[in-house]
From TrEMBL:
Domain of life assignment: Bacteria
Protein name: Glutaminyl-peptide cyclotransferase
InterPro entries, per the entry: QCT, Quino_amine_DH_bsu, WD40/YVTN_repeat-like_dom_sf
SUPFAM superfamilies: YVTN repeat-like/Quinoprotein amine dehydrogenase
Statement: the UniProt record of this protein carries the keyword Transferase: yes
UniProt keyword Transferase, yes or no: yes
Any one GO molecular-function label of the UniProt entry: glutaminyl-peptide cyclotransferase activity
Keywords: Transferase
One matching Pfam family: Glu_cyclase_2
Length: 284
């Protein structure tokens, strides 16, 4: 074979070997890629926004009221209180803090939160496993339902009652049967948020006291995510009032509790157990 032809043949042979090597490399690369675990997209959970507030006005509050529930209905303020022997619900005069009309329940029962729906007052009990229903006009009891576990607070979204039981879960209830329609888990960037207490539903969000803290939580009523948090530690100072917790009847338990939205004013009322004041605030 002439030397030139021999060199050309060798060149083609080398090119074929290179092509084969590249093909084999691609096959191994593809196999390795197929064996790699697929990356999963992770949605970052953002921390709740800081919700500022302004104190609009300060009103007197009955210091014998161990507040469990607070609400505004048809421009009237209603409050429920707890502790055996002292549990009641009442229509309250905002200007004086005194009851206009009130209803005490059985002395053996610790009353909890209330809500008003379809001209009826629904009242939870703490550990008596009962829910009472009253006629709004005369406060007469018209129904009683069994309730599993503890009862803490109530509100409604215009369709369902919404109940808290002290955990991180909120229960949506049929107002006619009190059967559970769904359970909403309240979470923030750290996971479940416990001690969800007194509730108020406003425009797709649930505002809640977090028991044993000075926090008001703003919760997305669809997802359960805490989207904002207000720290009311300086509430008395911002309201121009001197506050000494030691002067409360029970400093360890007389904590912030009670939140009501007044749509006519566009503001909230907040207070605490056996506190001397009720504060009108606007959240920003």
């Amino acid at each position: 074979m002439p030397i030139l032809s021999y060199l050309r043949a060798m060149k083609k042979h080398v090119q074929l070997l290179r092509g084969l090597a590249i093909s084999i490399g691609l096959v191994f690369t593809a196999c390795n890629n197929n064996n790699k675990p697929k990356e999963q997209s992770v949605t970052a959970v953002t921390s709740p926004a800081f919700m500022e507030y302004t104190v609009v006005k300060v009103y007197p509050h009955d210091t014998s009221s161990y507040t469990e529930g607070l609400l505004v209905h048809n421009n009237e303020l209603f409050e429920s209180t707890g502790r055996e022997g002292f549990s009641k619900f009442a229509q309250v005069d905002l200007a004086t803090g005194k009851a206009i009309r009130e209803h005490y329940i059985d002395k053996s029962i610790f009353g909890e939160g209330i809500t008003i729906f379809d001209n009826k007052i629904y009242q939870l009990t703490y550990r008596s496993n009962k829910v009472f229903v009253y006629d709004l006009k005369d406060f007469k009891k018209i129904a009683e339902y069994p309730w599993p576990g503890e009862g803490w607070a109530l509100t409604h979204d215009g369709k369902s009652l919404i109940a808290s039981t002290g955990t991180s879960n909120l229960q949506f209830l049929d107002p006619n049967t009190l059967q559970v329609q769904k359970v909403l888990s309240v979470t923030d960037q750290n996971g479940p948020v416990n001690n969800i207490n007194e509730l108020e539903y406003v425009d797709g969000f649930i505002y809640s006291n977090q028991f044993l803290t000075n926090n008001i939580l703003k919760i997305n009523a669809e997802t359960g995510s805490v989207v904002a948090r207000a720290d009311l530690t300086d509430l008395f100072a911002q309201g121009g009032k001197v506050f000494n917790p030691a002067q409360l009847p029970d400093p360890n338990e007389d904590v912030l509790n009670g939140i009501a939205y007044d749509s006519a004013r566009g503001s909230f009322f907040v207070t605490g157990k056996q506190w001397p004041y009720l504060f009108e605030v606007k959240f920003r």
